[in-house]
Amino acid sequence: MYDYIKTFIPRERILFHEPMNQHTTFRVGGEAECFITIQQEEELVKLIPYLNQIEQDYFILGNGSNLLVGDKGYRGIVLKFDGPMEQIRTDGTRITAKAGALLAKVAVAAKENGLTGLEFAAGIPGTIGGGAVMNAGAYDGEMKQVVETVRVIDREGEITTLDNDTMEFGYRTSIIKNRPYIVLEVVLRLAEGDPEQIGAKMEELAEQRRSKQPLEYASAGSTFKRPEGYYAGKLIMEAGMRGYRIGGAQVSNKHCGFIINTGRATAADIKEVIEEVQERVKERFHVSLEPEVVFLGDF
Ligand SMILES: Cc1cc2nc3c(=O)[nH]c(=O)nc-3n(C[C@H](O)[C@H](O)[C@H](O)COP(=O)(O)OP(=O)(O)OC[C@H]3O[C@@H](n4cnc5c(N)ncnc54)[C@H](O)[C@@H]3O)c2cc1C
Fold first, then answer.
1. How far is the CA of 103 from the centre of ligand 1 (A)?
2. What is the pLDDT of residues 33-47, one digit of tens each?
3. 53 Cα to the center of ligand 1, angstroms
């Protein structure tokens, strides 16, 4: 298999036994059997149908900011965008960003070009591809409000453009959570604004984050989705789990909706804290907390 892949992807971009703790904001995770960086769409046009045909497992990695990889690693191929697949282009009120572009960088590009609407995303540490998949959002903003189209590739290697409606954006979800599409590029439609005001708004939101979120620790942001009618962090606090700890994983004292890696956590520690929190909140309030975090590999 690798001999064939090397015919269209340079060997220096194909790594073996890559430690995934280097690629996740939780800073945990064992090795990926193989880790390939993708720089051109054409590479995926060849790779994806082939991997599906031979039934080889693969996983698309964004910036690993909503991801828990097991300590025993992932027996498959991780694909990550790099280089040209991180480009950002502005044209009038439209921004076209390749899937690997960081949301924070796209937000800065919007500000610099006097485009408003993406301020909410400046502090979300993911890629625009991951953001489109998760319909990332914060402070009353979400990707759904700004995405015009999403260019995707399917299992057969066909490239299609999905419009906002077809994306079926919902709370932290989109059609891509249930369909094996890979996001290649996202086009945003923003509005004209004043760069100074845009910058001030971004700074105000960043300050809110710093004051409320445990940004000094490794985490994946909010661990759970907001259950309808409740706030996950409040339920967790009221269940008496503030500061609850297993090994190096802990329910943050600052924001109970965050599970943090205090330094030496294993993925198993984090998973156990997640499960314990779910159990106790269910017992106490009869509310099921659904993880927002994506699980990958063996724990
Ligand atoms: C400190 C902190 C604060 C955060 N704050 C917020 C917040 O305010 N709002 C919010 O919504 N989230 C927040 N998050 C979570 C996270 O940043 C978002 O969910 C983000 O959208 C994930 O993007 P990613 O590129 O890191 O995706 P990853 O974590 O790498 O992947 C997430 C999922 O998307 C899939 N995926 C990624 N890229 C692609 C692609 N190109 N094509 C197909 N599938 C893909 C992956 O396979 C995986 O299933 C926060 C995280 C941290 C650590």
1. 10
2. 999 999 999 999 999
3. 28
DSSP state of 289: P
The answer to whether residues 132 and 220 belong to one domain is no
Ligand 1 probe mutation, 37, 48, 59, 65, most atoms within 8 A of CB:
65
Domain that holds residue 258: 214-296
Confidence (pLDDT) at 185: 98
pLDDT tens sequence across 46-65: 999 999 999 999 999 999 99
At residue 155, the pLDDT reads 96
Q: Is 287 exposed, middle or buried (0-12, 13-18, 19+ CB in 10 A)?
A: middle
pLDDT confidence bin for 251, thresholds 50/70/90: very high
Question: Quick one: which H or E segment has residue 97?
Answer: strand 94-98
Residues serving a catalytic function are 172, 222, 292
Cβ count near 111 (within 10 Å): 23
What pLDDT shows up at residue 277? 98
Residue in 78, 103, 119, 124 to alter for ligand 1 test, most ligand atoms within 8 A of Cβ: 124
The length of the chain in residues reads 299
Residue 221 falls inside a structural domain: yes
- Residue 205 is assigned to a structural domain of this protein: no
